[in-house]
Task: structure prediction
Amino acid sequence: MSGDLTAPPFGGADGPGQAATVVADFSALAARYATFRPHYPAALAAALAERCTRREVSIDLGCGSGQLTIDLAPHFGHVIGVDPSQALLAVAPTRAGVEYRCTSAEATGLPAASADLVVAAQAAHWFDWPRFVAEVARIARPGALVALVSYGVQRLEGDAMQAIDRYRAAIARYWPAGREHVENGYRDLVLPWPAVESPTLEMIESWTRAELVGYVSSWSATHRLVQRVGPAAFDALVAELAAIWPDDERRSVRWPLAIKLARH
Result:
């Protein structure tokens, strides 16, 4: 693996079944995920809070390393982040009023009718959809806001984007099932409650080449590629980017946000 990457080595193994496999993938990538994933704009948490009729409790399902969980804290009395990977929760930031629980989005164990906001950010595409919807219906209060958030394929200008596109095409078969929902902007994930108007937002980062490489290394498809056939394709991408992107140069990287809202 290229020396440009300052993150823990790839590791871990697929578990039995889709859910176990996804948890294994992201548990193995926990430190890398927390370090290199982009940050949601502050406007996202604010927009979700503005659309809530009450702001006592918010629940972030599939919270991972807490990227959105921590942003919700200023807007709600109590925030609960739920994720089945203890490795991811171990690297999540802490704050007063925020707690994390290691359990699944489909069986949280949380009290019925307890949440004013139930959100899943960059996670709903991995869930058992019918069971997830049933659990949301159970834990959401009447009138609660239900939110799905996903960020799509990153965009940057010039030859670096072309290099990333070629790499993505080469590793497409290594994504776990469910990635197709990210690619189509959550088009097929339909919430069974009345829709609420969604804000139009995007994530923007000013990154060095090393930060972009770190982000690509946190992809579950990259993890699986390295496990199964070795790092050659990833190392080739790192070398190609190094030839066209100076070490200390920062470039704008953008992700459109797909946001689906409904009123329980």
